[in-house]
Write a structure and sequence with these properties.
The structure holds two protein chains of two kinds. By secondary structure, chain A is mainly α. Chain A has 14 helices and two strands. In chain A, about 50% of the residues are buried. Chain B is about 35% helix and about 25% strand. The chains are: A mainly alpha, B alpha/beta. At the A-B interface, helix 9 and helix 10 of A face helix 10 and helix 11 of B. Chain B: This is Sugar ABC transporter ATP-binding protein. Chain B: Keywords: ATP-binding, Cell membrane, Membrane, Nucleotide-binding, Repeat, Sugar transport, Translocase, Transport.
């Protein structure tokens, strides 16, 4: 009797955590068959590679849970990177820490403003999220070109590399940043009333409204969060590359959406969360890393990525 | 009188994992007869329909159509054999016109390819005339109200010249007035020798329209009897397996000295005009009227879900300008909406999450959810309201209609609402659950609350409300006190506007 119960529980556990098992199997396969995969240095590499997408996908999770989509994240990241790089070039002040903090703040605020515009169009003017953020995708990218005259901003002081290249002890700053953001996002989404309200809006907007939830505020806020985190991601990217380019972060919106969808968060909102996104991020990260180590060309990597995303989502449909 | 049945079920068994849905069901359906299936939710009525129409396949036993074995495996087969089904949920397409819906899938064509629109419009109009309803075949479905949509659906089924028409709760979204029109259609079908299977929870209707009655309980056939030989009370007794002592519960604690909600001259152009009424503490105010009279719109406006053009509302003596429901909810009002599946519940979420939703913010500490409160409070209310669910973590989609509705009510009780606006609170709910909800309403007002109840079922309004406001075409046509309340009075106020 208790055997049966544990079996049912086990079955449910597997059913509810398909992605976790997929990730574990992927990890074991990579350990066994991919040379140099299992080294500590490489694992750290995977984490670093994932970190930028993680920041952006984190904001995307908020947006998708509320039954929206944000296509502007890549462009906002580029704009933020360009602004950050230009600022540090202009003001390489003596007090490095302070100026860096200020630059991060300015970039994040710019991302927040982009998100604000998205949120305004979507929640107040009833523009469909796909269209509103598509527009912002062009506007932000265009502004990045205008600001730099389409020339990369380089020759940056070494201090700019802090968030993208530096380590605190043995751990790169970008990984620390990723972990902090993911943990905060997790707590907000699963432990706060605000998080619960996001799920409610994503499940059924009308029900949420009639239950006294301010649908407008929720929608507004998720795009602001997404904009700010994209800007942070863009800054880490620029810092890592040691330059700011208007062409940076092309297609990052799709990587972020892929990570969220792959983890099993419902594209129509209301179901999923940060844990799922983390699974999605690492599945994508490990596959990319393994294929690189195996010497597969980056073009084929792109093809493989497309197919794997499709398989993951089909698996999720079967689970339902 | 020696007729052969059109459809015959012989010893049908059907099981879903863990539940015996049907056990040894044998029924014969004859042409020219209205055969009523009656039972509480979960008794197996819908499963029977689905087996006849080919949606489900019986585990054991056979279906015979005109004497031939006909265990259909999809709906198309049953349609081809002259069986059409009108489902409880509307299945008309909003963005098509009435005639396009009627001829969907079997369009009239010129030369085999091009649609012959004028012919279809003409045919549709002819159909409307024979049925006796006045809907323009060229209007879009999205512009019709629920009752009209239902009539289009019925027109579609009738137009297929079926030998059997199955109606699964066709009247649940119709007003009494529209029900009369539907009955005319059914009577015509009967004259044309069509076999009708009719499912309804409204016992009065069954007495009026049915010829034969089959009662089901927990998947077992209790009895098949002629409707002429049975009374309402007997039906209920057969359905629930015992005599129900009390069906309606009426509270008597209305305090006319204390007005909790005062609405005056509320107007929204095109929807309703100059609506004024007061709600007393401890009162259940019934709102009667035909579908489309503007009752739901008025209450949604009072609740802040819609904006009024003019007029004012006072809650507990305080004037308020509601821009969103949030403002009104804060003042202690809760809405149990008409369509609980689309407006009342997050179907994919658990009982606990739904019940706590309105209060979760208030009960949180610095924004953090109080999970202990959430669990205990929902458990408490599951017990108090006898909500049938395996646990507080069950997904609400899996609950029966009555239990879902209780979860919506629990949401507002947890939010400590003082006034509940209930829009058709017992629609599509079985007798037992209905009665439980009336009891809940009674105890709510006895504990100092007040209720506004919109209902299209007159017996319900008469049985529960202390006072009845009647609306017609967006205007209030009268108030009736419970001691003067009679069906005729309310019907005439609702349909002609005067007594």
């Amino acid at each position: 009797m208790s055997d049966k119960k544990t079996m049912v529980q086990g079955k449910n556990f597997v059913k509810n955590n398909t992605m976790l098992f997929f990730l574990i199997i992927l990890f074991i396969l990579s350990m066994l068959f991919v040379p140099r995969f299992a080294s500590g240095g490489n694992i750290l590499n995977v984490l670093i590679q994932v970190s930028i997408n993680a920041l952006i996908a984190c904001g995307m999770t908020f947006v998708i849970l509320s039954d929206g989509i944000d296509l502007s994240v890549g462009s906002v990241a580029a704009l933020s990177g360009v602004v950050g790089a230009s600022l540090i070039k202009q003001f390489p002040v003596a007090s490095v820490g302070l100026s860096l903090l200020l630059i991060i703040l300015v970039s994040v605020v710019i991302g927040g403003i982009c998100g604000c515009v998205n949120g305004f169009c979507i929640s107040k003017l009833n523009v469909p999220p796909f269209i509103a953020t598509l527009a912002m995708m062009n506007v932000a990218r265009g502004l990045a070109y205008v600001a730099t005259d389409a020339k990369p901003v380089f020759g940056l002081p070494a201090s700019f590399g802090f968030v993208g290249l530096r380590k605190l002890g043995a751990i790169p700053v970008s990984i620390i940043l990723m972990v902090i953001v993911l943990v905060i996002a997790y707590v907000i989404l699963s432990k706060t009333a605000y998080g619960r309200h996001i799920y409610a809006v994503g499940s059924n907007q009308e029900v949420a409204k009639l239950t006294g939830i301010s649908v407008m505020k929720i929608k507004f806020s998720v795009y602001i969060i997404s904009g700010m985190l994209s800007a942070l991601g863009g800054l880490v990217l620029a810092s890592k590359l040691q330059n700011g380019q208007a062409t940076a972060a092309q297609g990052y919106e799709l990587n972020a959406i892929a990570a969220v969808a792959m983890g099993g968060t419902s594209m129509s909102g209301g179901r999923g969360g940060i844990i799922q996104t983390v699974f999605g991020l690492f599945v994508i990260g490990i596959i990319n890393n393994a294929l690189s180590l195996l010497g597969v060309s980056s073009y084929w990597q792109t093809v493989a990525m497309g197919i794997i995303i499709l398989i993951a989502v089909i698996m999720d449909q079967f689970r339902k | 009188m020696e007729k052969t049945p059109i459809v015959e079920l012989k010893h049908i068994y059907k099981e879903f994992p863990g539940v015996k849905v049907l056990q040894d069901i044998s029924i014969s359906f004859y042409p020219g007869k209205v055969h009523v299936l009656l039972g509480e939710n979960g008794a197996g009525k819908s499963t029977i329909i689905k087996i006849i129409s080919g949606v489900y396949y019986a585990d054991k036993g056979d279906v015979f159509v005109r004497g031939e074995k006909a265990n259909y495996t999809n709906i198309r087969q049953s349609q081809q054999h002259g069986i059409s089904v009108i489902h409880q949920e509307l299945s008309v397409i909003e963005d098509l016109t009435v005639y396009e819906n009627i001829f969907l899938g079997r369009e009239i064509k010129k030369g085999g390819k091009i649609l012959n629109k004028s012919e279809m419009i003409k045919e549709a109009q002819k159909l409307m005339n024979t049925i006796g309803i006045s809907i323009n075949p060229k209007s879009y479905i999205r512009d019709l109200n629920n009752g009209e949509k239902q009539m289009v659906e019925i027109a579609r089924a009738v137009s297929q010249n079926s030998e059997m028409v199955i109606m699964d709760e066709p009247t649940s979204s119709l007003s009494d007035f529209e029900v009369k029109a539907l009955f005319k259609v059914i009577n015509k079908l009967r004259e044309d020798n069509v076999a009708v299977i009719y499912i309804s929870h409204r016992l009065k209707e069954i007495l009026e329209i049915g010829d034969t009655l089959t009662v089901l309980r927990d998947g077992i056939l209790i009895d098949t009897v002629p409707v002429a030989d049975i009374t309402e009370n007997q039906m209920v007794a057969m359905m629930v397996g015992r005599e129900m002592k009390q069906y309606y519960y009426k509270a008597h604690c209305s305090d006319e000295n204390e007005v909790v909600l005062d609405v005056s001259h509320l107007t929204k152009k095109g929807e309703f005009e100059d609506v004024s009424f007061q709600l007393y503490k401890g009162e259940i105010l019934g709102i009667a009227g035909l579908i489309g009279a503007g009752r739901t719109e008025v209450m949604r406006t009072v609740f802040g879900a819609e904006k009024a053009d003019s007029g004012e509302c006072k809650l507990f003596g305080q004037l308020y300008q509601a821009r969103t429901p949030r403002d009104v909810i804060r003042l202690g009002v809760g809405l149990i909406p008409e369509d609980r599946r689309q407006q009342g519940l997050l179907l994919e979420k658990s009982v606990k999450e739904n019940a706590s939703l309105a209060a979760i913010k208030k009960k949180s500490h610095k924004g953090f959810i109080n999970f202990k409160w959430e669990k205990n409070a929902s458990k408490e209310y599951i017990k108090k309201m006898s909500i049938k669910t395996p646990s507080e973590n069950e997904i609400t989609k899996n609950l029966s209609g009555g239990n879902q509705q209780k979860v919506v009510i629990a949401k507002w009780l947890l939010a400590e609402s003082k006034i509940l606006i209930m829009d058709e609170p017992t629609r599509g709910i079985d007798v037992n659950a209905k009665s439980e909800i009336y009891a809940l309403m009674k105890s709510f007002v006895e504990n100092g609350g007040s209720i506004i109840m919109i209902s299209s079922e007159l017996p319900e309004i008469l049985g529960v409300a202390n006072r009845i406001m009647v609306m017609r075409e967006g205007r209030v046509t009268g108030f009736v006190d419970e001691k003067d309340a009679a069906e005729e009075v309310i019907m005439s106020l609702a349909s002609v506007g005067k007594v």
